[in-house]
Amino acid sequence: MRRHRNVKIVATLGPASETYDMIRALHEAGADVFRLNMSHGQHDEIREKHRIIRQVEKDLDSPICILADLQGPKLRVGVFANGEEELKEGASFRLDLDEAEGDGARVCLPHPEIFQALEPGASLLVNDGKIRLKVTECSHSHATCEVIVGGTISNRKGVNVPDVELPLAALSEKDRKDLEFVCQLGVDWLALSFVQRPEDVAEARDLAQGRAAILSKIEKPSAVKRFDAILAASDGIMVARGDLGVELPVQNVPPIQKRLVRACRAAAKPVIVATQMLESMIESPVPTRAEVSDVATAIYEGADAIMLSAESAAGSYPVEAVTTMDNVAREVENDPTYTQIIESSRVAARTTVADGIVAAAREIAETTDIKAICCFTQSGTTALLTARERPRVPIIAMTSLRGTARRLALTWGVNCVMTSELDRFKMAVINAARAARAQGYATTDDQIVVTAGVPFNVPGTTNILRVAPCQESLIYAADPS
User: Which domains are delineated in the chain?
Assistant: First the structure.
């Protein structure tokens, strides 16, 4: 299904979007990727959503990417005898391992690993940062805190620990079970929560065993500090601004977002900008102007994808939210300023033959009347490198592997077309011309650029480029053999 934009849209599925009709409507409205949130729903419910997505994919003959988002370890306080308590600024409050019900002076925090890492002066944030505590004294079994910002604390509210790197694996026992389940089910990407170090990514990769690509969610200060190493270990990145905005001063998030997006672009790895992009559309059919500007900013930065969370999962207007993102993307990408920004932030990376081929393809396409760049790819690497160039013309990724086509649905500007396995470059050119015409990118009077690797079906061998006519008789005339 051809999109008239380059940025991709990720829609989270939930109670508001779990039927065949709604999932199909979301895809037709513009959703390229569906996110399955493993924090919610039983395995049977996840399996049914997966089945419906694949049915929509089959019915529309359009590769659809499925992203399974693992929950990660959740740090929460225990329960209170009264259900909730009011903490006053300046008061003392204790967190400990005692499982007894809490009161206005203390509550259980059943995570001994937190106490092992805490030091006096460290901050603890409760309930998405609404309550802020400062550790004044601690041991391996408790932490006495001063209430810096008070408020109502209630049962099982989440706790963030921004100042220290916790001795916690990114994968809980639940995550390990969920990972194996969704890999057997057949998802395309795994989003890994609570990443603090590259070793967290390596653990998930070992468990996935190549069955899904690994996308690291950057939501902790320690992940920002180690971002280069985490990016190198990952296949993609999600800028999870919600938790970043809790654990860091909110004014730090925009520059971090910009730096992370640029680093991902330079590394030719997909990056999603996520969280609260159209938050008001959970209850309203139209977004705020600030939200539209936020979405536009991510697109101007060159992000591969923008994401809807509760807007499509539990909101009253899921299709309208996707349509809004689609409309904003088209408007931004038609703005001449967009092209100027994207091209001025392009990073020249030409250390391999493949780098040189895709850079040449872009330059030829932009200096002559070329309608599309068609790249043949098995692993997806050639398409990722081509997308890194952010060319002005469409990218058509031709592959015989359904899994590759699905994974690439997350990548900027890439339109995936299934093709049979090929063993001759001439047939690759003919298939590329047919795809360009069939998808409406070109006519028989136009030309395209074709890139491929010879020998065929060997990953990482991109070594050939040809400017080809879309009229098959001219292709045969140039190569009668």
Answer: 8-73+170-338 (3.20.20.60), 84-160 (2.40.33.10), 353-478 (3.40.1380.20)
